[in-house]
């Protein structure tokens, strides 16, 4: 194919079936992220960096800087440095980001652990795989961590956010450092952008969660995921704990761009909207589950959203019906769906005038193509294929998992995502479904997302997930799990008839319908379809 640019997005190029995002050149020292963060905090110490929505407490850049330096000093005195792992298992509060900053200052490897992963097997695997030197944990998790501490010569220290008898508190370690030490502190140099900055857990949407070595090369790009012009001296919000890549890069990007963010623990959509109104929020970063809930607000007109300029959301596929509802609620807001993976970072994000429900155009220094998963031929516009992504020098390493690392990239450096998508002539990409979510009925492949889109249009449906129910003769049948809207009467037969009326015969809900009080979600905010598959095939 001839090389050409998108008419709508001239910053893109297209050649031989490959879309290329804008080329961005970084300064040689851009990967020194710890230094850049500390410089930003020092530059405007009176600027409010964090606001706790539950208490209204303000946390300035100066206060954040002092606590993070004190934490870094304590870590250094414990001998923590390059190659050592510290883990932060914190909820969404003002101190969770502090050890993350401290780790970046001294160049150790930072892991973020979901604080509600309290299962003994998960903790045991975590300790064995990561071998942390220090764990910063919530009060409820600390005793469980202690049960899995290693032998005397390999023990990790547990520092508690809060107070718990028998444990050292986070406040105690900060108070051990002197004002002179704080005043003379300097960040460590990172030798190479290939060094590991973080050990992030993958979401587990394609299998058991793995631990990915996230480099400074990825970090220097991804901290710019949210546009600077939407952040600078504005107020934002998210309501997911900083255990996941996207929340960490949002927090770091906000600090670099001098943006205030509100720390909020999600209760329900109405509660969050009251916080948005109270603090006159300008930008929001939302997970897909929060987007779904906000899009179904009973009375959105009850809230003042006039200050919101920008919303970026990600996590899993946002249905067209959901995005249409969002546009109705936020008619003057830049709504930007983004697609990415822990291993590759940001892949696409939607621009202001994107076609709904696009997940956007290729990000900076990113190449994207679609292939036929069976013979690897390149797909043309408006044809669905497996999405593959590549960035310069991409190297995917799973921590202590050589076999998985060797399987990730092909000989040309492409990462096969396992996701189905298509693109239009403008270079906008549209998510279809995960390949593993395709339901095999006789000789046909049924995209679960198409059936879910149809069911979501039913006026009585709040949430839906369609999974494969095994069948002896037909291979698999679609089965729907549904959460109804409050005070609405809907029957299984009504949903089955609705699908039969609107979709081809092969997509009928031959596996049946089951109503739930609540949809199960995994820790990254995605519907836990593995649990649903187990439920439907255990019957």
UniProtKB/TrEMBL annotation:
UniProt superkingdom: Eukaryota
Keywords on record: Ligase, Peroxisome
Domain AMP-binding enzyme C-terminal span(s) in chain numbering: 451-526
Record protein name field: 4-coumarate--CoA ligase 1
PANTHER family: AMP-BINDING DOMAIN-CONTAINING PROTEIN-RELATED (PTHR24096:SF149), LONG-CHAIN-FATTY-ACID--COA LIGASE (PTHR24096)
InterPro entries: AMP-bd_C, AMP-bd_C_sf, AMP-binding_CS, AMP-dep_synth/lig_dom, ANL_N_sf
Main location: other
CC terms in the record's Gene Ontology section: peroxisome
Domain AMP-dependent synthetase/ligase, chain residue ranges per copy: 60-398
One GO MF term: CoA-ligase activity
Location(s) in or outside the cell: Peroxisome
Family label: Belongs to the ATP-dependent AMP-binding enzyme family.
Gene3D superfamilies for the chain: 3.30.300.30, N-terminal domain of ligase-like
């Amino acid at each position: 194919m001839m090389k050409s640019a998108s008419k709508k997005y001239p910053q893109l190029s297209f050649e031989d079936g490959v879309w290329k995002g804008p080329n961005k050149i970084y300064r040689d020292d851009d990967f020194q992220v710890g230094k850049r963060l500390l410089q930003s905090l020092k530059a405007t110490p009176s600027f409010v960096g964090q606001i706790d929505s539950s208490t209204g407490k303000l946390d300035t850049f100066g206060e954040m800087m002092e606590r993070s330096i004190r934490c870094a000093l304590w870590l250094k005195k414990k001998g923590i440095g390059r190659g050592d792992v510290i883990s932060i298992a914190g909820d969404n509060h003002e101190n969770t980001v502090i050890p993350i900053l401290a780790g970046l200052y001294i160049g150790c490897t930072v892991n973020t652990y979901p604080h509600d992963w309290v299962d003994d097997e998960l903790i045991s695997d975590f300790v064995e795989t990561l071998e942390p030197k220090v764990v910063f944990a919530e009060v409820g998790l600390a005793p469980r961590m202690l049960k899995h501490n290693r032998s005397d010569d390999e023990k990790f220290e547990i520092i508690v956010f809060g107070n718990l008898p028998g444990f050292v508190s986070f406040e105690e370690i900060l108070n051990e450092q002197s004002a002179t030490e704080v005043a003379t502190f300097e960040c460590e140099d990172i030798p190479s952008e290939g060094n590991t900055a973080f050990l992030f857990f993958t979401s587990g949407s394609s299998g058991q969660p793995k631990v990915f070595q996230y480099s400074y090369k990825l970090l220097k790009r991804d901290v710019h995921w949210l546009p600077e012009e939407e952040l600078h001296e504005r107020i934002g919000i998210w309501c997911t704990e900083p255990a996941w890549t996207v929340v960490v890069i949002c927090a770091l990007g906000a600090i670099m761009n001098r943006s205030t963010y509100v720390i909020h623990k999600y209760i329900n959509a109405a509660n969050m909207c009251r916080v948005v109104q109270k603090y006159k929020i300008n930008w929001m970063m939302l997970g897909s589950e929060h987007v779904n809930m906000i899009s179904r607000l009973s009375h959105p007109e009850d809230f003042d959203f006039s200050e919101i300029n920008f919303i970026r959301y990600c996590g899993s596929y946002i249905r067209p019906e959901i995005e249409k509802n969002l546009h109705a609620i936020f008619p003057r807001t830049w709504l930007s769906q983004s697609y990415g993976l822990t291993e590759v970072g940001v892949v696409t994000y939607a621009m202001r005038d994107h076609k709904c429900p696009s997940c956007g155009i290729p990000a900076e220094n990113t190449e994207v193509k679609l292939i036929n998963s069976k013979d690897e031929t390149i797909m043309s516009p408006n044809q669905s294929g497996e999405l593959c992504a590549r960035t310069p020098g991409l190297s995917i390493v799973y921590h202590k998992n050589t076999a998985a690392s060797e399987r990730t990239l092909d000989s040309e450096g492409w990462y096969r995502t396992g996701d189905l998508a298509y693109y239009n002539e403008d270079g906008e990409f549209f998510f279809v479904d995960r390949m593993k979510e395709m339901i095999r009925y006789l000789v046909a492949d049924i995209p679960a997302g198409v059936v879910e889109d149809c069911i979501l249009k039913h006026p009585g449906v709040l949430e839906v997930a369609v999974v494969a129910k095994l069948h002896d003769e037909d291979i698999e049948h679609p089965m729907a799990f549904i959460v109804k809207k409050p005070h609405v009467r809907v029957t299984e037969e009504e949903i089955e008839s609705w699908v039969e009326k609107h979709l081809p015969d092969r997509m009928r809900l031959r596996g049946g319908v089951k109503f739930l009080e609540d949809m199960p979600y995994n820790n990254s905010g995605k519907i836990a379809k593995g649990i649903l598959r187990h439920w439907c095939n255990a019957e």
